[in-house]
Amino acid sequence: MTDDTPFHALPDFGVVCIEGQDALAFAQAQFMSDVASLADAHWHWSGWLTPKGRVIALFAALRVDGQTLWLVLPDADASDFAARLQRFVFRSKLRVGVPGGLRLSGAFTAPAQARGAQAAITGTDCTELDLGGDGVARTLRISTCPAGTDPEASARWVQADMVHGLPRLPPAQSEQWTPQQLSLDRLAAYSVKKGCYPGQEIVARTHFLGQAKRGLVLLESTAPLESGSEVHEGGIAIGKLVCASAGLALSVLPLDRDFAGLSVAGQSVAARPLNTGLAR
């Protein structure tokens, strides 16, 4: 890292900008959160689903102003995501693209001005989001300012996401899980009331019929874990790891278990409670 800042680069993050007269209406029709409820300079968690209700990508949706929305993507390739989204623009008056020159960085300190869902936007040079949750203060910065690489801090950032119930979705985990399976109600990341969007019928049916039988469970091990690995109970596979960092992982498991005697790749793992405070 540089000597004069606590910020470290977040290489897995990118930004997609949706801008124009129809930008917010387009986002409202495509994404699973109630984008129309956002005020200027406010953000919340959201995502884009397949028609079958599987999560393509999770992101922070930031309303910059009445015609501009930024999507802050933790894992999906921003250019690929923008190109895929562009296919659904049709005649809408908007532009979808990746802003040039922006760098994303993080710091384990409280933001100077941003609080909760309120972002701090300083012209086009710097935007800060409050990514803090219970037990940890964090600032995410979107700016033209470079930040040094710090693998240890980057790994700690991923783990902070995970322990607060924000699943990190590597490419192999995209389009595999429903919002309920990823327990995204904990982050207030989807709406069952706002109207139609891709996958909305699946999400609403699961919600109103009470059919969510699987959800996120935080697992801890003394050995490194890998996303995609199966979780076993008594020798029987009962779920998979969605994401992992060192000895921590988020897994989708049946919710009617006591999570005793779990193992991954022959290694014992223990279930741990998820922290709160990351919902916006």
From TrEMBL:
Keywords: Transit peptide. InterPro entries: TrmE/GcvT-like, YgfZ/GCV_T_CS, YgfZ/GcvT. Gene3D superfamilies: 2.40.30.160, Probable tRNA modification gtpase trme, domain 1 (3.30.1360.120). SUPFAM superfamilies: Folate-binding domain. The keyword Transit peptide applies. This is Folate-binding protein YgfZ. It comes from Luteimonas vadosa.
